[in-house]
């Protein structure tokens, strides 16, 4: 009698249900201020007319996502009315009755269905590509646990970062990422080989694509254009006054830049080249969201970050434009653009690392080199999310789930590619995360500096992870530029 | 290498589920003056730390036994003492004599939950994996799947990490006992079980099978010679362990009697509250509690328990194999649960543990029983505010067992209902018979879902305020009686020489 673990149909459902059960158990876990943010948006969109949505400021958590998200919240608010009408009153700041918590948590879990569906579609698109040629990563003949489709589904469904950001911290990234994944999958499902040929380009297709994009924007921003509120909307969406880095520095280039500036200024004071009285006190490390100036290195403005970001992603875009390599190339470009924006963007939140890790999962089950990059990026990226859950009660959860995901990703990818994936140096770096975690979570809170310098563990985490993230970015570019052009190999992608 | 990664992932999943359940409320939260089991455990830490040993079980000015007096054997007290030492290091206010009564804070809750988790990691979880890997059959993936299902049994998780108790210690030690006996280390196995017995006196439910199995084994090895030697060794080690645990109390016979008096409160009557055993269910129709005197009740309960335990024990004595042993554990503890004196609904965990061990061989029946056992504790769980974790863990367990163990794909032969099927062969084919069983399973699940929803969502009519707990109890009791018959049937109808015998023993 065949064990169900080998049957084709049930395993995806088992994975999806399993992770959904875990999410349901986390309903009563800690939730951050983002919970109140979304409750406020439910209230604003439900109780206020559209013209007031981007002006409402009763709560400090003003609407700062584009209009489609506002419409999404508006839709949700109608269901919310059945759970607890009080949450839809704008003045009920920090209202968190059990019914409110249940509704909000369930809304994330239920909308994740989009994410689950997208993964299913994505997987079947991937399988379709495999079937058409004798590619290395075949599904057939392998035991279930080591099939690429199973590994990919698990890496996406059980992604540690997504679970703790969406279902504990509270956000809707799963649903949004599902939409992105669906659009990628749908775009390539119409083509059997997934490639885009220059020859098939035509002005007509360009106009059609362009009009689709414009119509979408029109639908989204239309009411606000009509009301003449675009400057206000844009100022809410892009709050440049918030400073180069978030209160907790995302592990990107600017974090490294900041620390170099700090070290240089301390050296300068020690060597007598700088006057300590002229230095601003604890500006960047004070844990506040504000604009600040660097002391030794030149200060960075939003324009500079924009230019850096564009420069970082242009090579990848050009590469895709001139040497299109189908679905894989497109995904690689997405990863690089996401990571480039993370590395050089203005006021980046650490959660944005997920935008790079999730699409990279697909490339990881494809190529050995990408698997190596994925392991480094996902482990450091996920670790950098630890400061998001700072409560003692959630400490075991984040450690257990992180271990679960890390063990799975390492062992499954190792089995898939048969052999060691990461080099000794990389392995040492990743193992260094363990003492770092012990110091930041267990040792430091017991020291007297915990009250005077509370920012130190965040700083250490940010800097250490920034090294790994930067390294992954470089590796991705190298693999992009050194992967041979696939158009010469025929239709196999 | 593969096994290690799978095992570690299962352990992590089990621990995650446990810790996530611990976010919820505990028994007696914010309910002065008596609170609940959580406060009882905290109080025992207070008593054990501040008072000398000989006062722990006595009613003194410092130790008011009517406020959660110690009513478990000494090992629980020692465990509480150990926890109290740690508590004192972190925050002395938690175990301050008298003033810490009713102490509640989020950090204290964290501490208490952590003590349960540590006990799980050290005792229960290793025992589960040792059992699955060394004492059960199948491929290694099957063993890991079985271990995962056992780890995710909702009843134990909800009581230990929700309501708040330390059943994982006593059940873990009992499981070590089973593992020891199954691996041929009789001495260590009996030692472990003796420790379990000294942790919670309810382990007496399991004691007859342990006794009969070891005695049977000694007899098989010949009562003159090796068998006798083994018997003596085991008896001596058991006695020595008892003596060691009870050492501080052995100085005075009064002490021993007082402890026994606390452990077996015969004055409390046939049953308290709603519990899914025969007495409580019978009481709905015939008011036994008022009809019979207390002594008559005691005698009746003793007689019936003895009657139902006897066949299984005798069979085990004549045929001491692991398979028989596991079935005897189920039958004995189930008989005790159904007919014994002063049974609490949490005692269903005692039959549940050996049923977990049968998941490999009888997945459908085991899953069915385990789900009903969790359901039978619903009134308690609702009182503690654990509806959400109850619903999620039960559904997850049902789905996991059906999927991983292919519980529904069993023929009637695998259901071990051979002879029973023969009786109905006239009217039903083999396929239809197993179909019937599966339909019954489905209907039972549906009924549990409906009753659970009703208990949680609806208000009972004013005339029958206890309607839902009573319905839950009667429903569960019917299932438990049927299970008792089924497991006894399986155990007693096993032919003398089984071909394809299980590999152990």
UniProtKB/TrEMBL annotation, chain B:
Membrane topology of this protein: Multi-pass membrane protein
Domain of life: Eukaryota
UniProt entry tagged with the keyword Methyltransferase: no
Annotated EC: 2.4.1.-
Pathway: Protein modification; protein glycosylation
GO molecular function, one term: dolichyl pyrophosphate Man9GlcNAc2 alpha-1,3-glucosyltransferase activity
InterPro entries reported for this sequence: Glyco_trans_ALG6/ALG8
Keyword Thylakoid: no
Alphabetic keyword roster: Endoplasmic reticulum, Glycosyltransferase, Membrane, Signal, Transferase, Transmembrane, Transmembrane helix
GO cellular component: endoplasmic reticulum membrane
Subcellular location: Endoplasmic reticulum membrane
Cleavable signal peptide: 1-22
Transmembrane segments: 110-132, 144-161, 173-197, 229-250, 298-317, 388-408, 435-458, 470-489
Sequence similarity: Belongs to the ALG6/ALG8 glucosyltransferase family.
Record's function text: Dolichyl pyrophosphate Man9GlcNAc2 alpha-1,3-glucosyltransferase that operates in the biosynthetic pathway of dolichol-linked oligosaccharides, the glycan precursors employed in protein asparagine (N)-glycosylation. The assembly of dolichol-linked oligosaccharides begins on the cytosolic side of the endoplasmic reticulum membrane and finishes in its lumen. The sequential addition of sugars to dolichol pyrophosphate produces dolichol-linked oligosaccharides containing fourteen sugars, including two GlcNAcs, nine mannoses and three glucoses.
Protein name stated in the entry: Alpha-1,3-glucosyltransferase
């Amino acid at each position: 009698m065949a064990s169900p673990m080998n049957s084709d149909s049930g395993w995806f459902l088992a994975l999806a249900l399993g992770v959904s059960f875990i999410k349901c158990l986390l309903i009563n876990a800690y939730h951050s201020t983002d919970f109140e943010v979304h409750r406020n948006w439910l209230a604003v969109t439900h109780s206020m007319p559209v013209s007031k949505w981007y002006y409402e400021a009763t709560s400090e958590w003003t609407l700062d996502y584009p209009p489609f998200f506002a419409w999404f919240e508006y839709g949700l608010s109608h269901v919310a009315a059945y759970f607890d009408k009080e949450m839809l009153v704008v003045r009920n700041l920090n209202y968190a009755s059990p019914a409110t918590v249940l509704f909000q948590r369930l809304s994330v879990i239920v909308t994740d269905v989009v994410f689950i569906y997208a993964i299913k579609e994505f997987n079947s698109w991937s399988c379709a590509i495999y079937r058409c040629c004798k590619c290395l990563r075949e599904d057939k003949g392998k035991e279930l646990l080591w099939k690429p489709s199973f590994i990919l589904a698990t890496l996406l469904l059980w992604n540690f970062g997504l679970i703790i950001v969406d279902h504990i911290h509270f956000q809707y990234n799963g649903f949004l990422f599902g939409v992105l994944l669906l659009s990628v999958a749908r775009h390539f499902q119409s083509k059997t080989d997934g490639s885009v040929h220059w020859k098939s380009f035509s002005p007509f297709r360009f106009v059609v694509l362009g009009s689709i994009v414009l119509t979408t924007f029109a639908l989204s921003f239309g009411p606000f254009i009509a009301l003449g509120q675009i400057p206000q909307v844009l100022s809410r969406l892009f709050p440049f006054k918030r400073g180069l880095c978030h209160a907790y520095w995302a592990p990107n280039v600017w974090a490294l830049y900041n620390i170099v500036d700090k070290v240089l200024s301390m050296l300068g004071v020690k060597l007598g080249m700088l006057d300590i009285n002229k230095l601003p006190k604890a500006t960047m490390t004070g844990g506040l969201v504000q604009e600040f100036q660097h002391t030794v290195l030149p200060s960075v403005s939003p324009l500079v970050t924009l230019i850096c970001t564009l420069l970082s992603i242009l090579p990848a875009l050009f590469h895709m434009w001139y040497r299109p390599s189908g679905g894989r190339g497109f995904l690689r470009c997405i990863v690089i653009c996401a990571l480039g924006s993370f590395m050089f963007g203005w006021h980046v939140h650490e959660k944005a690392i997920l935008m790079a890790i999730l699409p990279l999962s697909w490339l990881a089950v494809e190529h050995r080199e990408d698997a190596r990059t994925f392991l480094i990026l996902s482990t450091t990226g996920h670790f950098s999310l630890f400061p998001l859950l700072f409560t003692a009660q959630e400490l075991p959860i984040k450690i257990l789930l992180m271990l679960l995901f890390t063990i799975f990703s390492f062992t499954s990818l190792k089995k898939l590619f048969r052999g060691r994936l990461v080099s000794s140096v990389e392995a040492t770096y990743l193992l260094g995360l363990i003492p770092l975690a012990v110091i930041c979570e267990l040792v430091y809170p017991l020291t007297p500096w915990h009250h005077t310098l509370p920012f130190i563990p965040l700083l250490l985490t940010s800097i250490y992870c920034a090294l790994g993230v930067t390294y992954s970015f470089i590796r991705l570019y190298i693999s992009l530029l050194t992967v041979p052009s696939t158009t010469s190999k025929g239709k196999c992608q | 290498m593969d096994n290690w990664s799978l095992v570690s992932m299962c352990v992590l999943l089990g621990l995650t589920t446990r810790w996530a359940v611990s976010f919820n409320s505990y028994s007696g939260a914010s309910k002065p003056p008596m609170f609940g089991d959580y406060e009882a455990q905290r109080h025992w830490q207070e008593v054990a730390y501040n008072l000398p040993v000989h006062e722990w079980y006595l009613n003194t000015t410092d130790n008011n036994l009517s406020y959660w007096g110690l009513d478990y054997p000494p090992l629980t007290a020692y465990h509480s003492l150990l926890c109290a030492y740690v508590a004192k290091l972190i925050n002395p206010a938690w175990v301050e004599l008298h003033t810490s009564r009713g102490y509640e804070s989020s950090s204290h809750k964290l501490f208490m939950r952590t003590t349960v988790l540590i006990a799980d990691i050290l005792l229960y979880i290793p025992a589960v994996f040792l059992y699955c890997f060394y004492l059960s059959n199948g491929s290694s993936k099957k063993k890991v799947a079985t271990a995962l299902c056992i780890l995710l049994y909702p009843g134990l998780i909800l009581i230990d990490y929700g309501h708040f108790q330390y059943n994982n210690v006593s059940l873990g030690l009992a499981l070590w006992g089973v593992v020891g006996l199954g691996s041929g280390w009789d001495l260590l196995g009996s030692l472990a079980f003796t420790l379990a017995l000294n942790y919670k006196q309810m382990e007496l439910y399991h004691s007859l099978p342990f006794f009969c199995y070891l005695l049977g084994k000694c007899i098989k090895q010949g009562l003159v010679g090796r068998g006798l030697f083994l018997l003596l060794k085991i008896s001596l080690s058991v006695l020595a362990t008892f003596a060691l645990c009870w050492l501080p109390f052995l100085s005075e016979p009064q002490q021993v009697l007082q402890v026994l008096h606390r452990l077996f409160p015969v004055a409390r009557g046939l049953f308290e509250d709603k519990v899914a055993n025969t007495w409580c269910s019978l009481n709905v129709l015939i008011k036994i509690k008022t009809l019979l005197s207390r002594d008559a009740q005691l005698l009746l309960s003793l007689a019936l328990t003895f009657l139902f335990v006897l066949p299984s024990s005798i069979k085990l004595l004549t045929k001491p194999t692991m398979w028989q042993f596991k079935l005897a554990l189920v039958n004995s503890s189930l008989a005790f649960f159904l007919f014994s004196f002063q049974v609490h609904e949490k005692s269903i965990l005692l039959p549940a543990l050996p049923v977990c061990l049968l998941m490999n061989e009888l997945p459908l029946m085991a899953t069915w029983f385990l789900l009903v056992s969790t359901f039978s504790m619903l009134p308690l769980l609702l009182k503690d505010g654990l509806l959400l974790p109850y619903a999620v863990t039960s559904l997850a367990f049902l789905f996991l067992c059906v999927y991983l163990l292919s519980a529904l794909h069993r023929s009637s032969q695998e259901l071990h209902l051979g002879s029973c099927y023969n009786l109905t062969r006239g009217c039903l084919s083999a396929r239809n018979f197993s179909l019937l069983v599966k339909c019954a399973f489905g209907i039972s699940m549906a009924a549990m879902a409906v009753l659970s929803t009703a208990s949680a969502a609806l208000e009972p009519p004013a005339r029958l305020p206890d309607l839902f707990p009573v319905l839950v109890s009667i429903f569960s009791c019917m299932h438990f009686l049927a299970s008792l018959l089924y497991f006894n049937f399986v155990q007693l109808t096993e032919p003398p020489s089984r071909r394809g015998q299980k590999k152990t023993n």
